[in-house]
Amino acid sequence: MATARREKIALCIFALLILGSLGGLLWYLVAGHSWNVAATNIDDTFGSMAGYNVVLYEGSEELDEKRHQKASLKTLEKESGAVKDEKPSAASAAKASALPLTIENVEESYEEKDASAFVLDIENPLLYQEGTILRRGDKRFGVISVETVADRPDLREAVKEFEAAAVDMVIAIAPKKGLVKGVDGIDVAICTEELDLLAMGKTIDATLYVAPPEHGSVGAILVSPSNVVSAKVITEL
Fold it and tell me: Does the keyword Transmembrane helix apply (predicted)?
């Protein structure tokens, strides 16, 4: 009896050790990623971005209108007589900045920080419908766009071709994240009509999903030399 009891206690301790190790590993991964993203922000702030790659895309006026309509509906559902101060839009913030905020100026700004930057034309996704490989610096980016569910087989095939070509990152452009979700091998998905997705992005199953920012601002995907991927919104220079 005593032997059986000791074995049960040993098994319980062993199970607790495994759970503790898994918890520690999870904390390390989350904290490590957070620190790496913080390091990217520091490098960006101080202009030391040698070895970085930056993917830029413009804010969406069409998505802004849909967001505004959704916000207006929510406001109508609430009965409130209070008048709230409106936050200045990204466009007005850009006008107040020292330099006019254009995607060309943002690209030039990153190049002055020694980063390799390039622009994706997400307003014209058909440019990438057949799949395109872009070489910037020492990295190769595979870019593919999908419009409907019928395009998903083409998306999977394009990802396979990108992998065979040894691209460093695969970027998909789609109206909704559901068109991309479940397809392995996609690193970043830019969802041009996703109302509930933040421009700063959300990682789901190893894919970073981002939405275009407010019209008048610029979205940026930052890839560090150690391949840490993060997203940010630029409203002024």
Answer: yes
